[in-house]
Design brief:
The protein is an all-alpha fold and 112 residues long. It is built from 4 helices and no strands. The protein has one domain.
């Protein structure tokens, strides 16, 4: 079960980062309200806090590298679910490779 908890935490962390970056994008590129910066800042603060909750047994650099794989997968899902753009087979293959990399980095056996 620790694996599912780790992956779930990565997913929530990625979602907060994507939201925190997407809202300023809406303001800057789509002409939406500047007030979107308030939830964006809160989302990015939550993102930073969530990163601190990741397994302490893993080195920070290892956690950040593994998180990157989950971020890629979540960004492709965001592309589809929020932006309405269906991922290409290459998007799916690339995100699958990134997620496989995350699993190798996070769950490989290591000496204590």
């Amino acid at each position: 079960m620790p694996e599912l908890k780790t992956i779930g935490l990565f997913v929530i962390t990625a979602l907060t980062e994507i939201i925190g970056c997407y809202l300023p994008y809406l303001w800057l590129r789509e002409g939406k309200s500047i007030l979107l910066l308030i939830p964006a800042a809160l989302s990015l603060a939550m993102f930073a806090w969530l990163l601190s909750l990741h397994p302490s047994a893993a080195a920070a650099g290892r956690v950040y590298a593994a998180y990157g794989g989950v971020y890629i997968g979540m960004a492709i899902l965001w592309l589809w679910a929020v932006e309405g753009i269906r991922p290409t087979p290459w998007d799916l293959i690339g995100s699958s490779v990134a997620l496989l990399g995350m699993a190798i980095i996070m769950f490989a056996p290591r000496a204590a």
